[in-house]
Design goal:
This protein has 11 helices and 5 strands, in the order H-H-E-E-E-E-E-H-H-H-H-H-H-H-H-H. A hairpin with an 8-residue loop joins strand 2 and strand 3. Helix 7 packs antiparallel against helix 8. The two termini are 32 Å apart. It has a 5-stranded antiparallel beta sheet, with no helix packed on it. It has 474 residues and is an alpha+beta fold. The longest helix is centred in the middle third of the chain and has 46 residues.
């Protein structure tokens, strides 16, 4: 007969194969199902309970006793972050986590309150940026660079650069519906506009009928970006369902923290590193608890992430100072020129390191915590040392791919800088020692050290907490 050891609702029907010897001779087929006897007749005893006579000269083999069926336990996931709702932690574990996390949460909120630029006007660029206006290119002509009303006489000089004259029609702004002719010199870095392109113009506030009041800035990219964002959201919700929706909400809140706290505070002159630490702490609490729920395992992941972030910040500060990194790359220099006042460029570099490593750290710490919890659930007799050893073996496989992810992300972002520096023709040591390349090296290596350290730190915290959980709370 079939016995169920695991719930069919979780795993499907499973047929158990036992070692009990069969009563049928070898080679015979299974007998057909017997029809029930008529009412009142003596019901035959089941084969398992019918005594069998021993053959002469042989002892009868002992009947195997049926083993008690264990209660089915929920089967958890391994690497996946989509674990189900965790069972409530014991009172001792809850108190321990509260003593550790509440001061950190209070410090994060206090830091955001102290660093936010209350009552200050939003920072503005000292250079006029112009008002963006949407337009559509109706025609393009390549020819000599001539001002409005000029006419080319004779052949242009051989070294003269051609210009692209674009006829555009504005679709919004003060000159909506009016046509314009804009001339743009053709350079290797100039975008190639064609008829039918949706473009963005910069309006300086002058006469709407004067083409000099407008300048072609870039393409319109709103529609494809919205479509891609919708496809991303659909994929996350289809696969993750309610947890995927929670992850999207957490992602939106993370962007709000960056846009409403991190950027205004840094632009107002606050320390970029302190702002990044406070903002990363807020993102960490919101994203992890909203996505994975209020549980002991999520709290351990928060602790592991915070410890690793502190380590990354300390290492970045030490080695950026030792390498005499100023943080004054092209983008930072342009930012300082637009602000009109100084900014802590090295702190801005360190802030980028902390925020850039946060996403990878979340992945590592949540995975390690879930792995330790599932190991304890599978074998409640394991102590914290056994849990730590098993979880660390899992983490070794994960840390290699996580570090490679971080290195490739930074290398991809710095690819134009790498290509430009390699054109100089100097040695490899000079290329790696350049300001722009050295910054990426510090970002990559400091972040990678933090990711590597996150594995044993999070694993030992998870092992200590999970080993103190009562078996009924797992």
């Amino acid at each position: 007969m079939n016995r169920r050891d695991i719930s069919d609702d979780d795993t499907g029907p499973i047929r158990r194969v036992t070692d009990t010897p069969s009563d049928r001779p070898p080679g015979t087929s299974r007998s057909p199902r017997r029809t029930p006897p008529p009412e009142g007749a003596r019901r035959p005893r089941p084969p398992a309970q019918r005594p069998r006579s021993a053959e002469p000269g042989k002892r009868r083999a002992a009947e195997p006793k049926p083993e008690p069926k264990p209660e089915p336990k929920p089967v958890g996931h391994g690497h996946s972050h989509g674990h189900g709702p965790a069972a409530p932690a014991s009172r001792r574990v809850r108190q321990l986590l509260m003593w550790l996390l509440i001061p950190l949460a209070v410090a994060t909120v206090a830091g955001m309150i102290l660093l936010y630029p209350w009552g200050k006007d939003p920072a503005k660029s000292v250079f006029p940026q112009g008002t963006p206006v949407s337009a559509t290119v109706t025609a393009t002509i390549t020819g000599p660079c001539l001002a409005e009303g000029q006419v080319q006489v004779g052949e242009p000089p051989p070294d003269a650069k051609p210009c692209l004259t674009s006829e555009v029609t504005m679709t919004d702004g003060p000159g909506a519906g009016k046509p314009l002719k804009l001339t743009l010199p053709i350079e290797p870095s100039t975008p190639r506009f064609a008829a039918g392109d949706k473009v963005v113009l910069s309006y300086n506030g002058g006469d709407v009928a004067n083409p000099a009041s407008f300048q072609i800035v870039d393409f319109q990219r709103g529609t494809p970006l919205l479509l891609l964002a919708g496809l991303f959201a659909l994929a996350v919700i289809v696969l993750g369902r309610w947890q995927g929706l929670a992850a999207l909400i957490a992602l939106g809140l993370s962007f709000l923290v960056l846009a409403l706290f991190v950027l205004p505070s840094i632009l107002a002159g606050e320390s970029p590193l302190l702002v990044a630490i406070a903002g990363a702490g807020a993102i960490m609490f919101v994203a992890l608890y909203l996505t994975h729920g209020l549980s002991a395992r999520t709290s351990v992941a928060v602790l592991g992430t915070l410890v690793s972030l502190i380590l990354i910040g300390v290492l970045s500060a030490i080695f950026s100072a030792a390498a005499s990194l100023t943080g004054l790359d092209d983008s930072t220099s342009q930012l300082i020129g637009s602000l009109g006042h100084g900014i802590d460029a090295r702190g801005l570099l360190l802030a980028g390191v902390v925020i850039g490593a946060l996403g990878v750290l979340d992945d590592v710490t949540v995975t390690q915590t879930s792995a330790v919890w599932e190991l304890r659930r599978a074998n409640p007799s394991l102590g914290w040392r056994e849990l730590y050893g098993a979880g660390l073996r899992i983490g070794r496989d994960h840390v290699g791919s996580a570090v490679n992810t971080l290195v490739m992300a930074y290398a991809g972002a710095a690819l134009p800088v790498l290509l430009y520096t390699s054109l100089s023709g100097v040695g490899l040591g000079s290329i790696l020692g350049a300001e722009d390349i050295a910054q990426e090296i510090v970002r990559t290596l400091a972040g990678s050290v933090g990711i590597v350290a996150a594995v044993p730190v999070t694993t030992v915290l998870a092992a200590l907490i999970a080993s103190r959980e009562p078996q009924e709370s797992l």
